Amino acid sequence: MSIEIENVTKRFGTFVALDDVSLSIPAGRLTALLGPSGGGKSTLLRIIAGLESADSGRVEIEGVDATHLTPQKRNVGFVFQHYAAFKHLSVARNVAFGLEIRKRPKEEIRARVQELLALVHLEQFADRLPAQLSGGQRQRMALARALAVEPTVLLLDEPFGALDAKVRKELRDWLRRLHDEVHVTTIFVTHDQEEALEVADEIVVINDGRIEQIGSPDELYDQPANDFVMRFLGPVTQVGDRLVRPHDLELDTGDPDPDAVSGQISRVTRVGFEIRVEVTAGEQVILVSLTRAQFVPLGVGVGDTVHVRVPEGINTTVVVPKPRVGAAA
């Protein structure tokens, strides 16, 4: 169900973790809280779960004011980065734990555990201990345990952060498919831009305790609200006072367009199918990303003069100068 967060503020001593945050999370969606470390995303997740209390503001879950409810009464499932497994219990008993403490009938527990282990592809490991599983398998076990009690909301705090890149990729593909099957409202915290762009229906960018922008992955990537969002979601380069994606730029050697920036190629790097060309124009180094098919016909190399152009219709963001330390406000 939907979650409404209204004017939530949270401080830890003099540090402001969340500063008057308001947010509406639609029911049944997979929403990513994305931002740098220390930006406030995990604090917001823990406030939704009831593991932290806000200094001010309100949290509503499924139309109910949950601001002062205990975690047990919020009906949320929570998955931590480091699994928090019961080491002495089997995989099946770990998944069953929440149902057992709720004193559900044994036959109901058995059927539910079997259903969930099949859902996360761990049925053959039911009798193993967590230590006998791989990292990816333990994370799937943790997700099954969180889903066992049929939570209204599933909260994931950097669930794949402790895993290697290949396993992370496999698990985020799996999480997307799982969400499409169970349709539980899901919020996950990540600082991995690719993970958020690939998995989420909606992304909330949080920085310094404030929301910078909310939107679909396409909206945030193509129409960033400011230079922070543009820099944080994907590669950027600066042309004059504008930020632009390197792959949106055009490179040519003919007569310069009036709006083009001329410079010399200072470096050419091939990374698989991509050719990264660094063009030095005065004090700026502009990065242009081309395919091999685009670069080779230009017939240029290091030291050659080229012209960099931002095509019409390409979204750019103007760089906002940061105030100097000690400057008057």
Description:
- Keywords: ATP-binding, Cell membrane, Membrane, Nucleotide-binding, Sulfate transport, Translocase, Transport.
- The chain is built from 9 helices and 18 strands.
- It is of the alpha+beta class and 329 residues long.
- It has 2 domains: 3-228, P-loop containing nucleotide triphosphate hydrolases (Rossmann fold), CATH 3.40.50.300; 237-318, Beta Barrel (OB fold (Dihydrolipoamide Acetyltransferase, E2P)).
- The strands form 4 sheets. A 6-stranded mixed sheet has the order 6-7-8-3-9-10, with helices on both faces. It has a 5-stranded antiparallel sheet with strand order 13-17-14-15-16.
- α2 packs across α3 (106-119) and α3 packs across α4 (135-148).
- It is elongated.
Q: For the terminal residues, how far apart are their CA atoms?
A: 43 Å
What would you give as the CATH superfamily of the largest domain?
Answer: P-loop containing nucleotide triphosphate hydrolases
Major sheet: order of its strands? 6-7-8-3-9-10
Low-pLDDT runs of 5+ residues are 324-329
Largest sheet: 6 strands, mixed
Overall geometric form? elongated
**What is the arithmetic mean of pLDDT?**
88
Please report which band the strand proportion falls in: under 5%, 5-15%, 15-25%, 25-35%, 35-45% or over 45%: 25-35%
The value of Rg in angstroms is 24 Å
Count of separate structural domains: 2
CATH topology of the largest domain: Rossmann fold
So, CATH architecture of the largest domain? Answer: 3-Layer(aba) Sandwich
Percent helix, as a range, is: 25-40%
Q: Could you state the order of secondary-structure elements as H and E?
A: EEEHEEEHHHEHEHEEHHEEEEEEHEE
Structural class: alpha+beta
